[in-house]
Amino acid sequence: MVTAIAESEELVYQRPESLVDVHTHYCPGCTHGTAHRIIAEVIDELAIQERTILVASVGCSVFSYNYIDVDSCEAAHGRAPAMATGIKRVHPDKFVFTYQGDGDLASIGIAETIHAAGRGENITTIFINNAIYGMTGGQMAPTSLLGQKTTSSPFGRDAKLAGYPMHMAELIAVLPGTAYAVRRSLHDARHIIQAKKAIRLAFEAQKYRLGYSMVELLSSCPTNWGMTPAEALSWVESEMVAHFPLGDYKVAEELKARTRRGKK
């Protein structure tokens, strides 16, 4: 009986080859681990593990090289796009991507991000937006929502004092060098599947040498938000998605055409 059951079983889930088999250090409920997994799945499906280089920048995102099994290097805070530019120009046949958080990409590194896109550098950025500085103590980030309480805005973000949240996918989309700029979320299974598809398209944009590509992923930070993991995912859905609408902000026509041909 046991043998018959075993023979009828079908493998539906396994760890991607490009995902390192180690225990996570991330806080319970953090969706960095979810992002790592779908990136690793895409790398496996495209069979590019030996040709991929990750540039991780300072913040919680810096530990991504402990989990994604590709050649990796660490950039100074905010400088990942600059380092990735140099690596890609020296190794144009490699798939080079940065993995960055909002304090890193949208604050200290916003110049590097904008100019990499403006130059049309053929690299990919995975942007984790959890609306807060995660590693350094939960301070207000460029993407913190209006009214959001943080350790540096205990009464809530006030537009008169701190301005408005940065919408990076929309900002990057208007630059001519950008081939692909989209926003997805990691708060439930359906949206995770959509996020994975977007990451694959971003790598394909690089494969076809179309220019800069960015996938912004709305993510949770239960520890610094002062929430349970379940509450944090609900907050992403109810608050973050409302302020940061999901969608495609720029998809190069050539990428659309190649995608249509691939489906035939």
Account of the 3D structure:
Strands 2-1-3-4-6-5-7 form a seven-stranded mixed β-sheet, with helices on both faces. It contains eleven helices and seven strands. Helix 2 crosses helix 8 (189-207) and helix 4 crosses helix 5 (110-118). The longest helix has 19 residues, at 189-207. The protein is globular, with a radius of gyration of 18 Å. The model has no long low-confidence stretch (mean pLDDT 94). 47% of the residues are buried. It has one domain (25-133, 163-263): 3-Layer(aba) Sandwich (Rossmann fold). By secondary structure, it is α/β, with parallel strands linked by helices. Helices cover 41% and strands 16% of the residues.
Key phrases:
Rossmann fold; seven-stranded mixed beta sheet; 264 residues; 11 helices; single chain; alpha/beta
Condensed summary:
This protein is α/β, with parallel strands linked by helices. It is 41% helix and 16% strand.
Number of helices: 11
Give the SSE order as H and E letters: HHEEHEHHEHHEHEHHEH
CA-based gyration radius: 18 Å
In whole angstroms, the N-to-C terminal distance is 44 Å
Number of individual domains:
1
CATH class: Alpha Beta
In terms of DSSP E residues, the strand content is 15-25%
User: What overall geometry do the principal axes of the alpha carbons give?
Assistant: globular
The CATH architecture is 3-Layer(aba) Sandwich
The helicity comes to 40-55%
CATH superfamily: Thiamin diphosphate (ThDP)-binding fold, Pyr/PP domains
